[in-house]
Write the structure tokens for this entry.
Amino acid sequence: MSIATAIEQIRHELPSTVQLVAVSKFKPVEDIRLAYDAGQRAFGENRPQELALKAPLLPADIQWHFIGHLQTNKVKLILPYVTLIHSVDSERLLAEIDKQASALSKTVDCLLEVHIARETTKQGFLPEEAEAIARHMGEYPNVRLRGVMGMATFTDDFEEVRQEFRTLKALSQRLSDIPGCDQVSMGMSEDWRIAVEEGTTIVRIGTFIFGKRN
């Protein structure tokens, strides 16, 4: 299946309320251009150096989403390009994003990454931690909280995946009184259809679009 056909197939199934982020990490600029030519504008990267190399080579209207673990010393690399940081997983990182954004006189849109999976290797706040931080975002005037992100357990037990997505969606609903905090980023190539059923607003799909990593 071509990149353009894969994007068309996903778009045919996605509700208009859900944004597709094409996960282009490790993929060459040529593949991203093919997706762009098929109408895709939002792309996800997880390595700061890779994003900083790719972005200047591609059209300026691309919306770059940073979806991977972000080290504080790499924040400066991505801020000139990034539209949304999905993976804020510590208060230390929040403080650094705020500091670097202030230096650029800009406000950066972010999601709090929430640990909803069984795997201890996954990053993120516990739901109650994320809720407490969300209530004190005034401490970070150059960060705009847009919502939450989470990754489900990698399992064939789709009922477990569904329950984990429900946990994240419930947290999102508790935060809905915060202005602009209305985004839920959940669902990848294996489980995005479940995420859509459970109320996601952003899906992050890479393998289905670009094929498996070489």
Remarks:
- Residues 75 and 171 are 26 Å apart (CA to CA).
- The chain has a mean pLDDT of 96.
